[in-house]
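Our collaborator T.R. sent over the components below with a one-line note: 'Predict the complex.' Nothing else. No constraints on interfaces, no templates requested, no preferences about which chain binds where. So this is a plain run: every listed entity goes in together, and whatever single assembly comes back becomes the starting point for the next discussion.
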Amino acid sequence: MIQPLQVIINGQLIAEKEATLGIDDLSIVRGYGIFDYFKTVENRPVFLEDNLDRFFHSAELMDLPIHYSREELKRQIQLLMEVNNIPESGIKLLLTGGYSVDSYSIAAPNLIITQQPLQRNLGQEKQGMKLITYNYHRPFGTVKSIDYVMGIQALKKARTVGADDVLYAQEGLLSECPRANIFLITKTGTLLTPGKDVLAGITRKYIIEIAKTHLDVEIRDVTLEDMKNAAEAFISSTTKNITPILSIDDTVYGANPGPITMRLQQMLEPIVFGRKVDLRC
Amino acid sequence: MIQPLQVIINGQLIAEKEATLGIDDLSIVRGYGIFDYFKTVENRPVFLEDNLDRFFHSAELMDLPIHYSREELKRQIQLLMEVNNIPESGIKLLLTGGYSVDSYSIAAPNLIITQQPLQRNLGQEKQGMKLITYNYHRPFGTVKSIDYVMGIQALKKARTVGADDVLYAQEGLLSECPRANIFLITKTGTLLTPGKDVLAGITRKYIIEIAKTHLDVEIRDVTLEDMKNAAEAFISSTTKNITPILSIDDTVYGANPGPITMRLQQMLEPIVFGRKVDLRC
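Returned assembly:
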């Protein structure tokens, strides 16, 4: 018999299909909450400490107290992994604004931990994606907020013009994709990525570390001009790893991923997956 | 015996304390949903048709199909009013992104109708409030989205400087408060209110109608200069009716509500409440 998928709400294990929040939770009435997300590879949580750092950072900035210690959170995650037994998975920690007495004030947050099977999209990582720029800057850029209203609406626009997603850009500066960080590689081989008021992606962090041993890396304001003049581009996230970008708006980088992007993919592979995967087309 | 408060979820009556949404609803995981809100006065819904118009408008713009006809929604509202029997109340229609298969795509929306006792804050309507400007413009301005992350954070900032709430202003233009529309009255007695990309407040609509019979009314871009030069200011909403503004940032309009504001309050009163209430201090 297959066990039903379990989740943990406020420390209690419960079957996912029975897991609910009361309708006065501040996520439902005011879209207020934060989360974080990491994956497991062969039952090993990947970059868990980094994700917990960011989870506590987001919670603090949005005034959401976490009523568990870091060690207790890790115990809950471990328990969930044991009962669900999904070796390749994504685990989400979601912290909402809680049951608000006046539908506006932050209350005692509800903490939900979920786990879902996660299948790698190797095709997309090999073939790449197309982006369009979208005039927006995410407020509270360093916070992993649940607020994806713009991301969901923008994706619709991207698809109507044959693109796969959007890249937020405002006042001439790139910031990030709704669910990924952006990198450019200049014609002289320098790696560029925006540094201010964007999500501190964990995959981004390790890409910067490995790139520094081989390339010049500049973490700074990245302009639309940089974008137009770049030789290569890619995005990074927990689910997308390094995914090449073939074009942004009318700027075409090539029909295939660029060579430095592919080299970085190869270098990132053992750090994330602990073994080599052939990413060549 | 006092009956427990009832709500309606997807057409079904249920006790409010048992009313829940599954944790994969798009409001919880991505802050995605819209709502509308009207009050009842002596068991009479106030401006219901206007609110339903705006509810359908918000839903359409955010790609959320409403699986009930307007008449069926009215029947559900009527039923809820009968079982709860709260003559002076606020009724909310909340439409979420639904149970998303991939935690990102819009699914069949969940529709929640709630009713709560609503007590008028006459003290605030008589004495007025203080605002500070806050650099933000609400995306999808004509949509009554559940996205109040900025409003909740901004309120915290307002309170630290002794103000009651914020007024969004960006690039020199006022737009709205997080939960109310803004009006200025110039020194020459013209009523000003922003017209572009702000919520089409229902109370705002009736204020404009009554003001037009007595004042020049300009619905146009309203600048920070207009704000500094104005003689009076007030905000409007379903719960706040016309609430005078005594100051915005360093601009002080007076220690007491202005005379035109008070006159408009008196004129609005019978339209909203069907009878006169003495609003004089």
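Summary for T.R.: Chain A has eight helices and 16 strands.
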